[in-house]
Amino acid sequence: TTKFTSALDIPVEFVAKNVKLRGKLHHITEKGLEVEHIPISIPFVTSIQRKWQSGGLLLVRLAGVELAPSGVAWLQRELKPKQVIWFQLLGREDLALECLVLLNKGRFLSVCLNEEILREGLGRAARIEGLHHDSRLYWKLHRRLLRAELKALKKNKGIWKEESYSERIRDRVSNNKFVQTLKQFASWLRSS
Predict the structure, then answer these.
(1) Which of 5, 13, 115, 188 sits most deeply, having the most CB atoms within 10 A of its CB?
(2) pLDDT by residue for the chain (192 residues), tens digit each?
C-alpha cells in the first residue's frame, strides 16, 4: 500500500522477486519513462495515507532494449500521458529501474513494450541489466527480445530497413564523378 516516489524506496526483495507494479505515465524522455507509482488501495487506509505521501516520479527504463531516436518518438506517439502501465522490476541501477513494461490493450490482452519496440525495428536488443546471466529468467527474456528483433530484421523494419535495389543504383549514379561533372557542365551552359 506504500507509494514509492524514488527507486531507492523500493525494497530490495521486490526487485529480487521481480514484482510487478502499477503506475501512471507522466513523461517519456531519452533516459526512460517517468512514472508515478499507484499503490494497492485499501478503501479506508488509502485515504489516510494520501495525506502523508509525497509526490515523486520513478524513472523506468525498458530492460534489454537500446532505443533508437525513432523509438523515443514512437513511444511519445503511442503512449498517452496519465496512461496506466504495469512494470515488472528486473533491476535497479542508481535512481533508475530496469523493467519489463506492460501495456493493457483491452480486457485480457497486454503488450510488452520492450518486445514491441524491437518488433518495430526501433531499437536493438541489449544486455538486461540487473539480472544475473546464469538465471533462467535472464535467458528466457533475452531469447524473447532477440526473437522480436529478428522479426524486424526479416521484415526490413525501422533501423533494419535497407535501401531497395533501384534506390542504391540511383544513389550510385548520382554520386558518380562523371555524372556530377556533366551536371556542372550543363548548369554552366544554361548560365552562359
Answers:
(1) 115
(2) 678 888 888 888 988 898 999 999 999 988 889 998 888 776 655 555 555 566 788 999 999 999 988 889 999 988 888 889 999 999 888 788 999 999 888 778 889 999 999 999 999 998 888 788 888 989 999 999 999 999 999 998 888 887 667 777 877 887 888 888 888 888 888 887
Task: Answer whether 8's CB lies under 8 Å from 96's CB.
Answer: no
Grid cell at residue 164: 531497395
Contacts within 8 Å (CB) and 24+ apart, 181-188: none
Which residue in this structure is represented by grid cell 478503501?
Answer: 43
Task: Provide the residue count of the chain.
Answer: 192
| DSSP symbol at 109 | -
The alpha carbon of residue 84 and the mean position of all alpha carbons in its chain are separated, in whole angstroms, by 16
List the grid coordinates of 184: 556542372
Contact 76, 28 (CB under 8 A): yes
Hey, what's the cell of 153? 530484421
Residue 157: exposure state from Cβ atoms within 10 A (0-12, 13-18, ≥19):
middle
Q: Helix 165-175 crosses helix 177-191 at what angle (to 10 degrees)?
A: 60
- Mark 143-156 as b/e (b = at least 16 C-beta within 10 Å): ebbeebbebbbeee
Q: What is the CA radius of gyration of the chain?
A: 23
